Amino acid sequence: MSQASEETREHWSGSLAFVLAAVGSAVGLGNVWKFPYITGMHGGGAFVLVYLGCIALVGLPILMAEMVVGRRSQAGPVGAFRSLAAPDRGGKLWSIWGYFAILTGFLLLSFYSVVGGWTVAYALKSVFGQFASGTPSEIKAMFGAYSGDPVSSTMSHAIFMVVTIGVVYSGVSKGIERAARTLMPLFFLLLIFLLGYATATTGFGEAMNFMFQPNFSDLTAAGILEALGHSFFTLSLGMGAVIIYGSYLPKDSTLYGSAIAIGFFDTFVALTAGVVIFTIVFSQGMAPGSGPSLVFETMPVLFSQIPYGSLLSTAFFTLLAFAALTSGISLLEVVVSFFVEEFDMDRHLAALSLGGAIFFFGLLSVLSNSLLADFKPFGATIFGNLDYFISNWALPLGGFGVAVFAGWGVDRDEWWDEMKDDWFGRTAFRGWLFLTRVVAPLAIILILMNLMGFLSLEA
Prior knowledge:
Blueprint: H1 3-8, H2 15-26, H3 29-41, H4 45-73, H5 77-84, H6 95-127, H7 136-147, H8 150-169, H9 172-199, H10 204-212, H11 221-233, H12 241-247, H13 255-283, H14 298-303, H15 309-343, H16 347-367, H17 382-409, H18 412-419, H19 426-451
């Protein structure tokens, strides 16, 4: 990257702005939707304990790696891998991982925005009291009817993408940073409000025991790998978002403190969301292992049966919509920044054209629940295939690429030069380097081996 481009490159106003934006990227549907239901499926407390260990040993080292790659290079994934790689350690060949991150971001947002649209629709349904007036069977049927209606799903998908495009269109400081400074405080206020309600209900104690009292007899080897995979999925790793956000960091910002803050708030949201959801589940005498239908089918039924259900439902689905939106913004920024940096495309044009392309590609996921429901290549719908490929393969592979690149593709002295002012000393630096070089790649290899059937683990 030229000196002129470095001088004109937008940056966050400070570390706080970066942390808010990065937390917004990390805090998504994985925290509020996926984490609670996989915790329920894998027995609660023991799974949570393993998950926390995986965050510390795998998630945070890769998060630090992506941050330092971005800040050191002052470039997006492709430019970062290309410019930082040592010539005798693969050189420009590493940029393949950067292109893979761009493709991952494009594909992920194409179906993520469909789910994001559902959260917007459910927030509106809550506002108008549609869950309060239906029977449990009618409320459960709402999700299938809505997701199977191509017109309604397309409209909510469009609304989600228009807002996402609008934020990225406005740039880093006036768009993404401003959105993060507004949405994230509102998000945490809604979360604390829901937690406050949970503490006053009969199921709170049972939810706390379920979440934080380990019972290792309920934990399987497959559950351990699920916790391992989710530990970096939840931090938005492997898709280039943290690299591009890290590239907007001023040189005088703190990497170590920012990484700890991002990891803390992301984990806090996942655990708090789990407590809130399981409190309501237990208060109504239901089992915790409801699976993926927990949010869009089980929770609306439960909200219809408790005092102030419409208010709580509105808060919950607005919370979910904010989480989806802040993650969607970071995904679109990964794609847009690539074309701005590599092809000198105007940001406004890039946001509109690429956001539009993602919207239209996302229609395949919309229609896979209706007009294309019977089209099932590889035994699943288009939506199902994209979800499976991105969640189970692309993100772990992306995380693996970053860990190996940071650990082995760049001279360690370059990392020390970039990070020495942020660390306690060389001992902490060596610890990060060991986790990045050895522990994180081996952990991801285990995930991939399990997916390929080499471990044959039973859930």
